[in-house]
Design brief:
- The protein has 4 domains: 176 residues, no CATH class; 81 residues, no CATH class; 78 residues; 102 residues, no CATH class.
- It contains 15 helices and 21 strands.
- The protein has a 6-stranded antiparallel beta sheet, sandwiched between helices. The protein has a 6-stranded antiparallel beta sheet with strand order 14-19-15-16-17-18, with helices on both faces. The chain has a 5-stranded antiparallel beta sheet with strand order 9-13-10-11-12.
- The chain is elongated and about 85 Å long.
- The termini are far apart.
């Protein structure tokens, strides 16, 4: 078995034409966010599988599609490869075996021709509209470049050149860009960076983020702590660390802290949250004991939703995969996120892998806050009796600890813990109604919660309080 990093066109050419010379087996490539697997017999390619095989029509020109896949890789030839001396491909067979030298020559020519076309249409997934009644032009109606190449019986170079000529002659036009096709161009932006909290109204900031459908991270950094608040479409869905009383902080913010607002596409913000709130499948394994190329190829090949975290000396690299496609690579260095275009990592580095799962915890934090407010009312009326009863009840909740008159979380709560917290809140409210009277309890709770009125409003916590009280 052979595997490794590919950093430029020459490296890719060496793997295709040099490594495969006279060999039989399977070559897997993850280049320019694309996955391609090639079955090789005595140095000739006989079968392939790619993540572009998405056509719902029967007759596909498999050779054209293969050349196009490799041409796309040549536009940014960086990634990883692995060669196995066994047949692992179960994909599209070619009508006739293709030599590796011929394939690279064709892909190189097509790449050059495609660059000319893309200057005019921006994306290979732009949908064509035929102008006029020319039958040759009519073939491209409703197709994009990829479909035209894959569904044409003509050589791929001929198809691309014909598209270029028809565009220049005004016989083809663009009328639609379909969402969800092709690599996504995601961006990152800082609405605020290191703004002292003493200069802003935190409640007004929260309200503007909600009204503006903000997606990203609100990062509050103090002298000895950092709080990350995760937003999707204007709604907070998670806070880290989970043992921090975020409601008390919003009420009396640390004037020595600073606020940064990092805008992220809503398709990736939940992946970034995994790093803080989920349990990793692979946890900080040194590059000395792991081959990173296999990990990239596996995530792409099996179309996984995952966050790959690479920890280097210069910072942490957040690499997001959705259904096997690499969406974005972000480098966090000294607390600042930047888009990283390279997949070369500085040795030694450490690898963590998180498969996607739900990490919402805001409902649990609302319930815990309300539980502690109910406890404060209890302690005022019967501290000894209530402490004994509450400690007896809390033993049933191993994810909670009781300290200095308050309950605290010891782990990020999942759906099971969320339901248990809601049950505990209901139990305590019923207990309080029995011990001090429902009306008296309600009056005192309203008094305790009055300072948080504006915070509750902008966080819309009523939607979490599903109990009758």
């Amino acid at each position: 078995m052979f595997y490794g990093y590919i950093g430029d066109t020459r490296s890719l050419n060496d793997v295709i034409t040099g490594l495969l010379q006279g060999r039989s087996g399977t070559l897997e490539l993850f280049i320019n966010r694309y996955f391609l697997s090639l079955k090789v017999e005595d140095g000739a390619i006989t079968e392939f599988r790619s993540d572009l095989e998405l056509f719902n029509r029967k007759k596909v020109n498999s050779y054209n599609l293969l050349v196009y896949c490799l041409a796309e890789m040549l536009s940014n030839p960086e990634g990883f490869f692995a060669f196995y001396e066994e047949a692992r491909v179960s994909g599209t067979p070619l009508e006739a075996p293709v030599g590796t030298d011929e394939l690279m020559i064709q892909a190189t020519i097509v790449r050059r021709e495609l660059d000319e076309v893309l200057d005019k249409i921006i994306s290979p997934y732009a949908i064509f509209k035929a102008v006029g009644r020319d039958a040759a032009v009519g073939f491209f109606e409703g197709k994009n470049v990829v479909e035209a190449i894959a569904l044409s019986g003509e050589p791929v170079v001929t198809v691309v050149r014909r598209i270029r000529d028809f565009l220049l002659e005004g016989k083809l036009d663009i009328y639609e860009f379909r969402e969800g096709e092709g690599p996504e161009e995601l961006e990152i932006d800082y609405m605020m960076e290191g703004v002292p909290l003493k200069r802003v109204n935190i409640v007004a900031i929260l309200e503007s983020l909600r009204n503006g459908a903000f997606s990203g991270i609100a990062k509050i950094s103090g002298p000895t702590y950092t709080i990350n608040i995760f937003y999707e479409g204007g709604e907070i869905f998670a806070v880290y660390p989970v043992d921090y009383d975020i409601f008390e902080f919003f009420l009396t913010p640390d004037r020595n802290a600073e606020l940064s607002l990092v805008t992220l596409d809503r398709s990736i913000v939940r992946f970034i949250a995994l790093r803080y709130l989920a349990r990793p499948e692979i946890n900080t394994v040194s590059s000395n004991f792991m081959e990173i190329s296999k990990l990239f190829l596996g995530l792409s090949k099996h179309r996984k939703n995952a966050l790959l975290l690479i920890s280097e000396k210069k910072g942490d690299r957040f690499i997001v995969f959705r259904e096997g496609r690499l969406l974005i690579s972000l480098l966090e260095s000294e607390g600042i996120f930047k888009i990283s275009g390279s997949l070369r990592f500085e040795e030694p580095y450490f690898v963590s892998l998180f498969f996607y799962r739900k990490v919402d915890n805001i409902a649990s934090l609302v319930y815990l806050f309300m539980i502690n407010e109910v406890l404060s009312v209890f302690m005022k009326h019967a501290p000894t009796k209530m402490s004994t009863m509450i400690l007896r009840e809390v033993v049933k909740y191993p994810f909670l600890t009781f300290s200095e008159g308050k309950l605290h979380l010891t782990l990020n709560p999942g759906e099971e813990e969320e339901q248990k917290l809601l049950n505990l809140l209901s139990f305590l409210l019923d207990l309080g109604a029995q011990e001090i009277g429902e009306e008296k309890q309600q009056e005192e709770l309203e008094f305790h919660l009055r300072p948080f009125k504006d915070i509750f409003r902008v966080l819309d916590i009523d939607r979490y309080l599903k109990i009758k009280h």
